Amino acid sequence: MSSRFVAAAAGLSAIALLAGCDHKSEFSTGPVRTETRNVGEFDSIEVNGATRLEITVGAPASVVVEGRERFLERLDTEVHGDTLRIKTRKKDWVSIGTSPRLIVRVTLPTLKELEVEGGNDIELTGFNGGTTKIRLEGAANLKGSGRLDELSIFMAGAGHADLDNIIAGTANVTVAGVGSVTVHPVDTLDARMNGVGAIFYSGSPRNVNTRVNGLGTIGQRDAKRAAPDHGPQAPVDPDSLQPEYDDRAADEGKTEVI
């Protein structure tokens, strides 16, 4: 290998490294600001990218974003049909992790469907009946609270969904991969596990239908947490308690006569 080729390769590597550093410094500095997006009416949400998403079912409807100014310029929020599409550019995903979080706060009267792709943190609040379908792909982290008549969730990837605080009449859960989902059904649980993930449920639903393909787990969360019952314990007689002595200390205090 010629020295000229080695020098050229080193030069290209240096240029690429500097370009990456410039991109990182460009988007990890600058003011943090908040803006309201006027997008129109919608009842479903699709997310592609890396953000923190806070969804509230309520009124009035709004979309508010917060983050570095340069990130906000590259954040797309558009309505197609009845769906709000939130998208960040893939090459920004790593940079976002080194900066103050890009936060999207959405308020809407009804959430029918939520589809998420990427490493997002999502919080759902305000549910008060109705039906909601959720689909997660990637490494999303989801939690929620409220009440639903029916909750359906499909997870593919290595995500985590803690929906124990959403009380649902019926919960339909499918996990494909290594993800984990926790739900709280009152009437019916229909759970399918395809992979090595885990599905847990709280409460005591009247109907439980489970199917497992692979090494995954489906189980009751309350039973998993319960401490073992060793039965009633006999009362302790204080007079039967004997003090404990340190034999080593006693030996050290002895005087040996020769």
From TrEMBL:
Compositionally biased region (Basic and acidic residues): 245-258
Residue span of region Disordered: 221-258
Record domain Putative auto-transporter adhesin head GIN: where: 41-205
Pfam families assigned: DUF2807
InterPro entries assigned to the protein according to its UniProt record, in alphabetical order: DUF2807 (IPR021255)
Gene3D superfamilies membership: 2.160.20.120
Tree of life domain: Bacteria
Protein name: Putative auto-transporter adhesin head GIN domain-containing protein
